[in-house]
Each structure stands twice: as C-alpha cells, then as structure tokens.
Amino acid sequence: MRAPESELPLIFEDASVRADTLTILDRITLSIGAGPPTVLIGPNGSGKTTLLKAAMGVIALSRGRISWGGRENVPPLRRAFVFQRPMMLRRSVIANLNYALRAGRIPKNERSVRVTELLNMIDLQALGERPARRLSSGEQQRLAFARALARDPAILFLDEPTANLDPAATKAIEDLISAASSRRIKIVMSTHNLGQARRLAGEIVLLHRGRVIENGPASPFFNSPRTPEAQTFLSGELLV
C-alpha cells in the first residue's frame, strides 16, 4: 500500500480551540509536510490530542483555519486516526478489518486479499476468527493500526499509540509505524516517551499550554534545543 500525499502539507494558521473559558490550543501556526514522522511532545494538557483531533477534522476550531494540500473543509477520507485506547467492534478480527475496508470504500472483490495482507502485516494470521475484544492490549493496538491503514490514508494520526504497552508490544507498534512511513504514509503522532520520539521522529513539535514552543528537525532539537522550555523538558524537569 502506498498512499498519495494529496492532503499535504497540513497547515494550521492562527488556529485556536476553546472550551468555555479554557483555551486548549492557542493561535497555533504550523506546517506539516511529507517525510518521516512528525512527533508531538509536551506535558499533559499541552494540547497534543486536541491538535491531532483538529487535524483529523473531528474538533472544530474556535478561530483560524486548517488546510490540507492547499484546500479547506476537506472530508477526512484520506485521513485515519488511532486512539490511545481503540474501541474494538464486537466481532472477529477479520470482521473488524472487513468493516474498515467497507468504510474505506474498498471494492468488495478486493477485500479478501487485503484482509490477508493486513493480517500478515500485524502478525495476527492465526487469530483472524478470534473476537477482537479477547485480544491482548498490544494485539488490539496492532488491529487498530491495521484498520486505520485499511482505508489507504495519506495521513495517519496516532495518539499515544504505545501507552501502557510492554516493551515487546511497543516495538511491534514502532515497527508498524516505520513500515507505514516507508510507504510514504505521513505519520503524525503524540508520545510522552522521549526515547520513542528519538527513535521515530523526523520532526519534533513541542507543545506547552496549547502553544507551539519549538518545532523543527529531530536531531537538532534533541542535541541543541533553542528554547528554555525545551531545555527544561528534555532535562526531565517539570514544565509548568
């Protein structure tokens, strides 16, 4: 599977999200283009999940604009989202994948082959008939990842995709992320794991209090952060 980059660049212009008197995103201006994964980091409550949901189109902005490939108000047909705790349908692993393929408008005569490809990709070939809700947490997250890829997204949003997973399950998800990125699917993900950010990121976005504090290529960010907030965060101190 190789997705086109039709929804890139993803651009936020003066974008804010407010809930009553609380500002969650505060006048974000950010451009995300093709290439290796863009990783959002920052303390709890910094706006990472809200930024991902706004990019997906499931949260409306209070002000500003978002464009996908130079267009606004684009239906999210070429975007996919994997939540930190994905919901499993009350059906088998294969049926979960078939549901995603139907939703992604994949022709019926292609679905059987695609299901096999997806099962092989996530190494669940032997569990296709098992109820999805009986899978382990790591297996469920791999299935959620496959469901997202079933619609051939141009952009894949991942919200803390390995939170609460053990090291082996974490590595399995990271391998899937790397494989998807190698197929030119743009990954935009959040994580609290700085080691994971170092392993996966081509670009880092540091958020704090709903604002972009620092944004740029991963290597310079980790080796010589420009802002005091980034220096504090990377040193392991609390960013308040």
Short description:
The chain has 240 residues and is an alpha/beta fold. 35% of the residues lie in helices and 24% in strands. The N and C termini lie far apart (42 Å).
Structure description:
Helix content is 35%, strand content 24%. By secondary structure, it is α/β, with parallel strands linked by helices. The chain has one domain: P-loop containing nucleotide triphosphate hydrolases (Rossmann fold, 3-Layer(aba) Sandwich), CATH 3.40.50. Strand 6, helix 5 (167-182) and strand 7 (186-190) form a beta-alpha-beta unit. Helix 2 crosses helix 3 (108-122). 40% of the residues are buried.
> Averaged pLDDT, please?
94
Q: What is the succession of H and E elements?
A: EEEHEEHHHEHEHEEHH
Number of separate domains: 1
Find the CATH topology. Answer: Rossmann fold
Fraction of residues in H or I helices: 25-40%
Rg over CA atoms, rounded to whole Å, is 18 Å
In CATH, what is the class?
Answer: Alpha Beta
- Known CATH architecture: 3-Layer(aba) Sandwich
End-to-end Cα distance, whole Å, is 42 Å
Can you say what the CATH homologous superfamily is?
Answer: P-loop containing nucleotide triphosphate hydrolases
Number of distinct beta strands:
9
Strand order of the largest sheet: 5-6-7-3-8-9
Give me the secondary-structure category: alpha/beta
Shape: globular
User: Low-confidence segments, ≥5 residues, pLDDT <50?
Assistant: 1-5
Main sheet record? 6 strands, mixed
Number of helices: 8
Beta content comes to 15-25%
